Amino acid sequence: MANYSTNNLKAGMRIVIDGNPCVIIENEFVKPGKGQAFYRVRIKDLKANKTINKTFRSGESIEAADVVETDMQYLYTDGEFWYFMNQETFDQYAVDSSAIGEAKKWITDSDICGVTLWNDSPLIVKAPNFVELEIVETDPGLRGDTASGGVKPAKLSTGAVVRVPLFIDQNEIIKVDTRSGDYVSRVKI
């Protein structure tokens, strides 16, 4: 396994801390007036999904995490696990519901999702950046309600609720940005 020197640490690098894969969020070099220089590092544990602060001495060696990000096709869910297939090797992976997180409200059949693997085990699933979903429930937009921009809540086929313009009706298909949960546009059929 490869190692990094603390002198080479940068935001975005993946390292192993206490046997768990982590990603560096922030890295700060500190040279006190007296004593040895050190690095104050803010790390996100990919397994536990927690952010921690660590201090490393200058020149210390840290193990690199062999984390792979790959695109996989969503197949189905049985309630407890979500199943994905690697489209190159056709290997199937069962992903625990906790690893799906917020992405579960955007994923539909056959979507291509970003899956983070560590030791051939899925850690994190990211929904596609943009998805096209059908509106299953929304109030009709009333004429004259546009004084303040004119938006209303709409429930999508996956259960997610987004704010849409008043001219959008039930059973229409819209494009949504999954990173922010915002309405992007109406999809023309």
Question: What this model shows, in words?
Answer:
The chain has 189 residues and is an all-beta fold. It folds into three domains: 3-63, SH3 type barrels (Roll); 67-126, OB fold (Dihydrolipoamide Acetyltransferase, E2P) (Beta Barrel), CATH 2.40.50.140; 130-186, Nucleic acid-binding proteins (OB fold (Dihydrolipoamide Acetyltransferase, E2P), Beta Barrel), CATH 2.40.50.140. The chain is 2% helix and 54% strand. The chain is built from one helix and 16 strands. Strands 9-8-7-10-11 form a five-stranded antiparallel β-sheet. A five-stranded antiparallel β-sheet has the order 14-13-12-15-16, with no helix packed on it. The radius of gyration is 22 Å and the shape is elongated. The mean pLDDT is 88.
Structural class: mainly beta
What fraction of the residues are assigned to beta strands by DSSP? Answer: over 45%
What is the level 1 CATH name of the largest domain? Mainly Beta
- Major beta sheet, strand line-up: 9-8-7-10-11
Task: Indicate the CATH architecture of the largest domain.
Answer: Roll
What does the average pLDDT come to? 88
> Mind describing the biggest β-sheet?
5 strands, antiparallel
Radius of gyration: 22 Å
- The total domain count is 3
Poorly predicted residue ranges: none
Q: In which range does the helix fraction lie?
A: under 10%
CATH topology of the largest domain: SH3 type barrels
The shape is elongated
Report the span from N to C terminus: 51 Å
SS summary, helix count: 1
| E-strand count | 16
- Name the helix and strand elements from N-terminus to C-terminus, one letter apiece: EEEEEEEEEHEEEEEEE
